[in-house]
Amino acid sequence: MVLPCELRRPAELKRADARSSSRPGLPPFRAALISGAMAAMALALSGCASTGYPSASVAEANTSVDSGYAVAAGDNIKITVFDEPSLTGEFQVDSSGDLAMPLIEKVSVTGKTPNEVAQAIGTELKSGGYVLDPKVSVEVLAYRPVYVLGEVDQPGEYPYSPDLTFFQAIAKAGGFTPRANKTMVVLQRAAWSTPRAIKLTDEPLMIAPGDTVIIEESFL
Predict the structure, then answer these.
(1) Any idea which fold 76-142 has?
(2) Lowest CB count within 10 Å: 76, 80, 141, 145, which one?
């Protein structure tokens, strides 16, 4: 099913962008990040006039969250190599989705679950002859933030917490504006190549780290 694109027009995105970037006390670099997210979403949705964008059910969206957290650029993770304190520490995934740590020059971790990252590190340590039988654990210390944009009182970037729901994210952003469409949401997720339009139901919609949530204007 492909939905029409009357849900959002560029002028509405600009209006939401202006509200988010003018929030009191918002550091300039954070305002730039939010404006960048707005621009990226505007570009993604600009092609809707001719092709539309696909829909997804709440259940489908929740399935992609339940499949496990996928590590990505910017994540802060703690790596523990048992009985190897020199290899244990906190590390950040770089902008290319790679991780550098002692003895291992670079390992690609983007898109992997923490368990898969641990396995990849263990493989590198063993194949390089650094640790005979490495036992590795990986813990995510800081999740990527979520962006709540469009018809909410305080559009912007908000911290992610496990089991975050759509309505909890909306509450973080000050709630809906009077113009908000409360029956449909446009969701951009790292695992999806294009935004998805999701019709809200009684089933809670789970938000994933790094999600961009767009609340459209109601035309009723």
Answers:
(1) wza like fold (3.30.1950)
(2) 141
